[in-house]
Amino acid sequence: MRKVYALLFLIFVSFSQSCTNAPSNKENISSEDTTKSSSGKLNVNRISTSNVPSAVMSTFKAKYPTASGVEWETATEDSKPSYKAKWLENRVKRKAEFSVDGTFLKEK
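^ that's the sequence the OP posted. Answer follows.
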């Protein structure tokens, strides 16, 4: 019986080690999140909040004052740069896009 417990313990330890060594989703950004530049139409890159221009942040905070946990991306579509915000609001995914000068472009 001790051998069975020892074997189960070893399996558990091995499994827990493999789970802790696995990369998280934030470290493993998919190609969809980073670029679609082969056609030259869309290029997207994640950025930190500190890299978002103040004009964009001002417009975003005025339009969505209760938003939290916001993830930012820069995007270039047809040679037009923009900033995209993504966040959860009441368990619903929200997205908004702004031009470089802070002009609101669209939301989803």
